[in-house]
Amino acid sequence: MSSLPSIGFVGLGAMGTPMATRLLEAGFPLTVWNRTPERAAALAAAGALPAATLREVAAGSDIVISVLFDDTAVSGVAFAADGLVEAMSPGAIHLSCSTISPALADRLEEEHRNRGQHAVSAPLLGSAAMAAAGTLYLAASGPAEAIDRLGPVFSALAQKTLVVGERARHAVVAKLANNFLIFAVTEGIGEALALAQKSGLPRAAMMDLLWETDFARRIFAVYGRKVLDRAFEPATAPARLALKDLDLALAQAAASGTSMAAAGLLRERLAKTVARGWGDLEFAAVALLTDAESGLPVPHVPGSSKGGQSA
Questions:
Q1: Half-sphere exposure of residue 81, counting CA atoms within 13 Å on the CB side?
Q2: Nearest to 240 by CA among 275, 274, 272, 276
Q3: More confident residue, 6 or 219
């Protein structure tokens, strides 16, 4: 008899199927359910128990993992009559690996807690190929006891699990922020390559420059640390200089007929940063503007009265 916890798995899509396969291969007793039952056939042939209902997948499981598309899908399986919340046993854990709203994470947390169950969030960072190889990254949050019990599950699914908080919403917010950053950086890369190509520079040459100078690691290691620590002095690239350089890029974009929507927005943000009196700080001080507009505390920064008029 297996000493590993029994797992119910809900959602056998592009990510769910390879994750469930990993768990089965690791020796976990596995019951699977999918809205379209035929997707469970291969796992059933490999030894998983197919469930006909949500109650069947949840009632006998120590841990129920859901990998679903959106809030509607998660709510449908969690809160339906005979759904996960009603069917799970006291002490059982619902591990939600979906990218959902913080509000839904709060509701899952409350509904499960009211029944003596645990809600843990662990949105997926990675691809279907990484899921199949067990090399996903997970951002996890929830009660410490439940996180500890999930250790063998995390080990089977991911190369690294980062615990980011004790509320179910914390990992959800981390995933949303992570995805925003991916989308923003990708838009920036697209605009940079378009500007290069429209100006006669081959796209591949521009991308080679970024790769060969370790652009991603430099930006995140150096400027990410400055934003985190709000350490903007001494400035090697002050906001005033960044504004000048961005104006040059936008002028070339106009001359070459290149669309650079993100660059235009960044130009506006940098101008406001300079107008606040932060023009002589490192250009990453644009993050102070976001903090100020978000109602977050903005520390006094030595020399921040320089470089522009106070706003």
A1: 0
A2: 274
A3: 6
Q: What is the pTM of this model?
A: 0.89
Whether 175 is a known active-site residue: answer: yes
Q: Which residues are CB-neighbours of 31 under 8 A, at least 6 positions away? A: 6, 7, 8, 9, 48, 49, 50, 51, 56, 57, 60, 61
The answer to whether the CB of 239 falls within 8 A of the CB of 273 is yes
Domains and CATH numbers, the chain: 7-173 (3.40.50.720), 214-311 (1.10.1040.10)
pLDDT tens digits for range 225-237: 999 999 999 998 9
Q: Is pLDDT at 284 greater than 90 in this prediction? A: yes
Angle, CA 145 vertex, CA 143 and CA 150 arms, to 5°: 95
Which neighbouring-strand residues pair with 140?
163
Question: For 67-87, what is the mean pLDDT?
Answer: 97
- Rounded to an integer, the average pLDDT of 122-139 is 97
The whole-angstrom separation of Cα 93 and Cα 90 is: 9
Q: Using CA atoms, how far apart are residues 78 and 137, in angstroms rounded to an integer?
A: 24
Tokens 């899921």 found at: 131
Supply 246's token pair: 């961005």
DSSP three-state, residue 191: helix
With a pLDDT cut of 70, the percent of the chain lying above it is 95
pLDDT value of position 303 = 52
Select which of 175, 198, 226, 272 is catalytic. Answer: 175
